[in-house]
């Protein structure tokens, strides 16, 4: 029987293992941590957004790498939903198009998936730390395997405590684009008056950066700016685009000016209250806008949010960078290492939150597993 080794037991690695087992190979999955899919389980704590139910062209446009297209065509949003339902995990689509398991957590899906892999004969080895080639440090000592094919699925460089520390990149520096944080918060050196508002959500605003406009929300935290509205713009901000905020996106500039004129000579704090701005919006106005050389109305419609750059990469939800697609063939095999494939966040791609990340990990894992099976 042909043998396969999968290094990494996240969604990409488990999907690759399943495809290899279905093709008739004897599969070993090596995981450095004491248990599999830790980052996947962490994602499930906020509902486990599996994919996004939208037109395919809109879906694929969310990714920064055209190389992912064939993989997403082969395993896209509808396939993800069918895959979850085949594991007896019913899903539902929210008003934004985001797809979640009805259980709203990852553990039932993961347990069902591990049972299926076990029934296929997949052998999961935990606490196996990769030290190069097909060698591992294990609780029983050093182990060396001789698989016919290998799939690398060791993750990116964020959330090291969950297993993705990017250390593998040190062993293949010529093949890797440098890691950068993605879907991350930004540090802000807040003044003291902001402290009572740490943790407050900022809702019903429009954020703008690098030509991108997004209606959403974010959170003012002790560390800075966090949340979905920031993550959508995080790539543009990381690349140097300024961040601007419209505090009253449903009111035109002319109407804001008219309302301010009606307020007369009241104090500015009272005027902002009359405009029905909530406390956190008023605080942001005074934090970033009170000393500007433009009118109050224009500041309310175009408030600059000054930050001190991205939070550390280990805090990021995901990472950009990793194995470049030009060092891989169309089946995700390393050109320099025949019969060694790669998948998931190890690859150099980037996408926003909203189901795109998990879908691409599943799709690339499936693709790598299928092509590895053909090489065995």
Please provide a written account of the structure.
This protein is of the alpha+beta class. Helices cover 32% and strands 22% of the residues. It is built from 12 helices and 19 strands. It has helices spanning 11-22, 38-44, 56-61, 69-74, 77-86, 107-119, 228-238, 253-263, 268-274, 279-288, 296-301, 356-375, and strands spanning 3-7, 26-31, 51-52, 91-93, 98-101, 123-126, 129-130, 135-138, 141-144, 149-152, 176-182, 186-187, 200-209, 212-221, 224-226, 244-246, 303-304, 318-323, 340-342. The protein has a 6-stranded antiparallel sheet with strand order 12-15-14-13-16-17. The chain has a 5-stranded parallel sheet with strand order 6-2-1-10-19, covered by helices on one side. The radius of gyration is 24 Å and the shape is elongated.
Architecture blueprint of SSEs:
Layout: E1 3-7, H1 11-22, E2 26-31, H2 38-44, E3 51-52, H3 56-61, H4 69-74, H5 77-86, E4 91-93, E5 98-101, H6 107-119, E6 123-126, E7 129-130, E8 135-138, E9 141-144, E10 149-152, E11 176-182, E12 186-187, E13 200-209, E14 212-221, E15 224-226, H7 228-238, E16 244-246, H8 253-263, H9 268-274, H10 279-288, H11 296-301, E17 303-304, E18 318-323, E19 340-342, H12 356-375
Parallel strand pairs: 1-2, 1-10, 2-6, 10-19
Antiparallel strand pairs: 3-5, 4-5, 7-8, 8-9, 11-18, 12-15, 13-14, 13-16, 14-15, 16-17
Helix pairs in contact: 1-12
């Amino acid at each position: 029987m042909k043998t396969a080794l999968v290094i990494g037991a996240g969604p990409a690695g488990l999907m690759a293992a399943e495809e290899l087992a279905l093709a008739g190979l004897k599969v070993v999955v090596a995981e450095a941590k004491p248990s599999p899919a830790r980052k996947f389980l962490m994602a499930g704590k906020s509902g486990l957004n599996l994919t996004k139910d939208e037109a395919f062209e809109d879906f694929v446009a969310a990714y920064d790498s055209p190389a992912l297209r064939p993989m997403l065509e082969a395993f896209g949003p509808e396939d993800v939903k069918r895959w979850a339902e085949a594991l007896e995990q019913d899903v539902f689509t929210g008003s934004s198009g985001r797809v979640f398991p009805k259980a709203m957590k990852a553990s039932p899906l993961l347990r069902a998936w591990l049972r299926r892999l076990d029934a296929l004969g997949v052998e999961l080895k935990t606490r196996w730390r990769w030290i190069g080639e097909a060698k591992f440090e294990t609780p029983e000592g050093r182990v060396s395997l001789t698989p016919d094919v290998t799939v690398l699925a060791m993750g990116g460089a964020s959330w090291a405590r969950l297993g993705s520390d990017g250390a593998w990149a040190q062993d293949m520096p010529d093949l890797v684009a440098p890691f950068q944080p993605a879907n991350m918060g930004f540090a802000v050196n807040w003044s003291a008056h902001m402290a009572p508002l740490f943790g407050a959500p900022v809702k019903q605003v429009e954020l703008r950066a690098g030509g991108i406009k997004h209606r959403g929300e974010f959170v003012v935290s002790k560390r800075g700016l966090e949340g979905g509205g920031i993550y959508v713009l995080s790539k543009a901000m990381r690349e140097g685009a300024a961040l601007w905020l419209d505090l009253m996106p449903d009111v035109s500039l002319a109407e804001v000016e008219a309302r301010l004129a009606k307020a007369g000579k009241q104090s500015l704090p009272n005027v902002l209250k009359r405009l029905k701005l909530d406390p956190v919006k008023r605080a942001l106005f005074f934090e970033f806008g009170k000393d500007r050389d433009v009118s109050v109305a224009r500041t309310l419609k175009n408030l600059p949010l000054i930050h001190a750059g991205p939070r550390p990469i280990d805090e990021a939800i995901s990472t950009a960078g990793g194995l470049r697609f030009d060092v891989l063939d169309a089946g995700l095999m390393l050109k320099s290492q025949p019969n060694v494939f790669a998948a998931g966040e190890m690859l150099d791609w980037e996408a926003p939150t909203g189901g795109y990340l998990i879908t691409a990990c599943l799709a690339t894992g499936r693709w790598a597993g299928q092509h590895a099976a053909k090489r065995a």
